[in-house]
Design brief:
- With 295 residues, the chain is an alpha+beta fold.
- The protein is built from nine helices and 19 strands.
- The strands form four sheets. Strands 5, 6, 7, 8, 13, 14, 16, 17 and 19 form a nine-stranded mixed beta sheet that branches. Strands 1-2-3-4-11-12 form a six-stranded mixed beta sheet.
- The longest helix is centred in the C-terminal third of the chain and has 14 residues.
Length: 295
């Protein structure tokens, strides 16, 4: 199965300059096609096509997802969240995670033994935030969004100017990064098939009105002394020493405002105070032993 980048390039390659196709009942010629880019991050448009029939030009701005794609956003930070959800982004995210607060409180945070995909020696720093088109795991739920906010997520209408007015074939084109269509299939073999398969975003939302969030753990691995990336955290584990014991509070009201490095530094400072090097050193004498996994 080709990776996404290869599949995306294949889709763009079908729109060869000069080929004919029919769009909305009229015959057009492809003038150009490219993947819009910007200086940092990505626009929402993955495939930009300019058509012409001599009398008028028509842009096709397509957001492409592979047929089995779940992710809508999987590297969400505070800037991206504000662009997706608007000025109330903090309340939207914290409201979503707080709605399933009990599930977070039940999670194991210290793994003295391996459990599933979590290796022995892991200590949770917090949880990253992802947007999906269907529920994804235990720490997942429905986002409480207005229809306009759902549209903004899919189309990218609130993105920063450099992402909206993206670079296409070496020049900036106004609103080229704001998508109008969604293509969610791998089973096309021509530009005409793409045009016949793509769906206007507003029509797609009518059929798929819900957006879900999922929170994935970011763990510090005490035996390796590392963690996987300095990612912003939607819910943080505020590690602390209280009454001579390692303990914590869960923080829901500062979504994406603290990252893995900040929380790891707090955890390591607590571990040093208590002479804890790995999870093997954690016991009931130096911790409150809540949410500790042991076989």
């Amino acid at each position: 199965m080709p990776d996404f980048g290869a599949a995306e390039r294949r889709m763009i390659s079908y729109f060869k300059r000069g080929i004919e196709l029919f769009y909305r009942g009229s015959r057009y010629i492809v003038e150009e096609a490219d993947k819009p880019t910007c200086s940092y991050g990505e626009p929402k448009t993955d495939i930009y096509v300019l058509l012409s029939n001599g009398c008028q030009k028509q842009e096709l701005k397509i957001s492409y997802k592979k047929e089995n794609a779940d992710f809508l956003e999987n590297k969400t930070n505070s800037q991206r969240a504000e662009q997706l959800f608007g000025p109330e982004w903090r309340e939207i995210i914290s409201g979503s995670t707080s709605a399933i607060a009990e599930k977070f409180m039940e999670r194991m945070l210290v793994y003295k033994d391996a459990s599933g995909r979590t290796e022995k020696g892991a200590i949770t720093l917090g949880w990253k935030f992802e947007l999906l088109n269907k529920p994804g795991g235990d720490l997942s739920g429905l986002m409480n969004l207005t229809p306009q906010q759902v549209y903004d997520v899919y189309a990218g209408t609130n993105l920063s100017p450099d992402k909206r007015d993206a670079m296409v074939n070496g020049r900036i084109i106004r609103d080229s990064g704001v998508a109008d269509y969604i293509l969610m299939t791998d089973r096309v073999g021509s530009a005409q098939e793409i045009v016949e398969t793509m769906v206007p975003i507003d029509e797609y939302i009518e059929a798929h009105p819900n957006i879900y969030f999922a929170c994935k753990a970011l763990n510090y691995r005490t035996f390796r002394q590392k963690y996987d990336g300095n990612r912003p955290l939607s819910v943080q584990v505020d590690w602390k020493v209280r009454d001579g014991k390692l303990t914590y509070d869960l923080v829901f009201d500062q979504p994406l405002e603290m990252n893995g490095t900040e929380i790891a530094e707090r955890l390591l400072a607590c571990m040093r105070r208590l002479s804890i090097h790995t999870t093997d050193d954690i016991d009931e004498d130096n911790s409150d032993m809540k949410n500790v996994y042991e076989e």
